Amino acid sequence: MSSVFDVHKIIRENLLKFLDNHSLEQLNKVPDGFSNNIIWNIGHCISSQQLLVYKLSGLPTMVSEDFINKYRKGTKPEGDVSQAEVDEIRTLLFSTLEKTKNDFESGLFVGYNEYTTSMGFTLRNVQDALDFNNYHEGIHTGIIMALRKLV
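-> structure tokens emitted (151 positions)
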């Protein structure tokens, strides 16, 4: 199981590099042909992880409903995010990862509400959710890699 969290940590470290290597203007820029930007994709990874792992397990999320609603599937940037919001996202990248790992290891996840993703994966338990989450964050890392060339 530790490999799932090892992969998740590497993904999050790469997402942090995008935050560290781009200006606030670049993070907020939505290039022509795209419907979102770098910072939205990173916030979306955090929001989705919270929904897939915690909400579907019947547990409270570590982020607010406002945060989830701002970055959930089907949304797009409604304006520029502030440096304070970028700093919050930077912190959440690793605080959510560490808490999830600790919660998993302590046996907190006992129930799960089965969910079929838009990609056709049926998540039946938290293990499925953690596995799928890494795949999902990998997709968004790829999108960010495309976006960074256009900002």
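The chain has a mean pLDDT of 96.
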